[in-house]
Amino acid sequence: MLQIAFIAHDRKKDEIVNFVTAYEDAFKDAKLYSTGTTGTRIMEKTSLQIHRFMSGPLGGDQQIGALVARDELDLIIFLRDPLMAQPHEPDIIALLRLCDVQGIPVATNIATAELLVKAMMRGDFAWRELVHKYKPE
User: Fold this and answer.
1) Is 81 designated active site?
2) Angle between the 13-22 and 110-122 helix axes, to the nearest 10 degrees?
3) Cα(48)–Cα(97) distance, integer angstroms
4) How far is CA 99 from CA 7, 64, 88, in A?
5) pLDDT for 52-105, tens place per residue?
6) 46 CB contacts (<8 Å, ≥6 apart)?
7) Which pLDDT tens digit goes with each residue over 94-117?
8) Of these residues, 14, 61, 71, 100, which one is catalytic?
9) 13 is annotated as contributing to ligand binding
10) Which residues form the MGS-like domain (predicted)?
């Protein structure tokens, strides 16, 4: 079962809700996580159940980062607002760095999210199972 996290800055929340609604069937068998408001908004428009962490600025990005650090996520869709300064920018950079360290695919815009979800639907994320199977303890 894939484990996926959703994060969206304020001006991207409608976009992520529309995206997840469009691909609801693709996400229905995954274990889903999100930051607070993003998860609430998605659950209001879909039948998906999402484990919600705190709001990003209040530590939710770091909570998701903890899952990444333990290599417990397979994909993050993080729709960032590149035109608005974020007060918790250091947390965002730390999360993205952890994704690079752990090799976790992360989409920061809708175009990349679309490509990664299409790959997920084709079964292209099977490589993650091999990573876990042969990971040195």
Assistant:
1) no
2) 20
3) 28
4) 14, 10, 17
5) 999 988 889 999 999 999 989 999 999 998 888 787 788 889 999 999 999 899
6) 20, 21, 24
7) 999 999 999 899 999 999 999 999
8) 61
9) yes
10) 1-137
- Is pLDDT at 137 greater than 70 in this prediction? no
Residue 12 marked in a binding site: no
Give the CATH architecture of domain 3-125.
Answer: 3-Layer(aba) Sandwich (3.40)
User: What global pTM score does this model have?
Assistant: 0.92
**55 annotated as ligand-binding:** yes
User: Is residue 104 within 8 Å of 68, Cβ to Cβ?
Assistant: yes
| Domains of the chain by residue range | 3-125
CA 49/CA 21 separation, integer angstroms: 13
Q: Helix (H, G, I), strand (E, B), or coil: what is residue 107?
A: strand
3-state class (DSSP) for residue 106: strand
